[in-house]
């Protein structure tokens, strides 16, 4: 029987929703157990959150001062050690997971399976390739530990159960490297919903025209309680910071509603929104590729259409 170890993603004492999505993928294996591993310098609150996720058998905590910041070089040796006895090691396919899990795979001497979007069997998975234009089936060796990142946009978040999983402290006897150290974390602060987990997202592209004009995107997003995203062209032009970028080289998201404003619809951008529920596009170019995937489209000047939309919304 399979036993799955999920590496929890967290920041500032809060569990990232991507962890619950990784649990959904683990449950699809129908394993004997799904354990969540929390590495932190203060794991109590994070572990309590993880213990409430439906499908979780146990929460294992590794508390060390070195785990105060998520450094891949520090976390990977501990995860590899904790993985003993597990058939699978999962982590979300986020910036965190993409940073940490390849190191874990290397330490375990296995090849990583990336961006798992479907579980076909204990060692058989489907994942996207060619910017999402094709889906391939990959099979990991049954004799080795499966190390895989989970494409969070393809999985619903596992809910919170009434019962709480047990929380156990784990000690891993492993020497940690000293060549990597934490300097600082620079991140934008916003009261808006998190882009990667938001149910509604409003994104702007090159067609918005300037950093100052991007205010129309922020105002519409605030009007409907949405997160804000952007195309790579808008980020490259300096309209918004890179942490808002949606697409193949940005964030892969799956909101219930995605509003694309002034975005032409390059394949790299469409890769990031292919799992969105309803896509609404606003663009002055009626031939823009975005209209081929949009459920609703408006052709015209975004600076005239958006105020009309805001007025209609009330």
TrEMBL record:
InterPro entries of this UniProt entry?
DHS-like_NAD/FAD-binding_dom, ETF_a/b_N, ETF_a/FixB, ETF_alpha_N, ETF_asu_C, ETF_asu_C_CS, Rossmann-like_a/b/a_fold
Q: Does the keyword Electron transport apply?
A: yes
Q: Which Pfam families match?
A: ETF (PF01012), ETF_alpha (PF00766)
Q: Does the keyword Electron transport apply?
A: yes
The Electron transfer flavoprotein alpha/beta-subunit N-terminal domain sits at 4-186
Question: Where does the signal peptide begin and end?
Answer: none
Report the superkingdom from the record. Bacteria
Q: Provide this UniProt record's keywords sorted from A to Z.
A: Electron transport, FAD, Flavoprotein, Transport
- SUPFAM superfamilies per the record? Adenine nucleotide alpha hydrolases-like, DHS-like NAD/FAD-binding domain
Similarity annotation: Belongs to the ETF alpha-subunit/FixB family.
* PANTHER family for the chain: ELECTRON TRANSFER FLAVOPROTEIN ALPHA, ELECTRON TRANSFER FLAVOPROTEIN SUBUNIT ALPHA, MITOCHONDRIAL
The protein here is known as: Electron transfer flavoprotein subunit alpha/FixB family protein
